[in-house]
Amino acid sequence: MKILRLLTAPAAVLALTAGTVTTAAAAPARPALNDVVLLGPASNGQTVQVHTGDVVQLDLPPYRDRTVTWLSSVPATAVPSVLPQTSGSTDPDGTTHATFSAAAAGTGDLTWVWRCAFPDHGSACPPFVYYLRTTIVVS
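User: That's the sequence. What structure does it adopt?
Assistant: Structure tokens below.
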């Protein structure tokens, strides 16, 4: 009988402890921070899925072709109610940046233009520009 009491007492303590740990683990967790989705030139033509509250950042460094260097315009949003632009800038080295907030569920495009900026000596800029687009789906 004494042995049975000695064995059941530790089992009861373990059960209480396990219950306490489980209760603590079941407490509401802190909300997760919103994600920052980084995009670049390779996102052209892509569809990217994000969540409401996420931040979409597009960074576009200069692109060097065989005889010219291409610079990007600051990307813009086609649907400001879904993806309002929160910032846009160009660095001294020609890299452009734009940040958008995924404000509401929906679909919107981010667009930008590559223009020839610096032809090599003896070369000329081509008479065209590149129009690029990334589709962002916010859910």
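Residues 115 and 128 are 8 Å apart (CA to CA).
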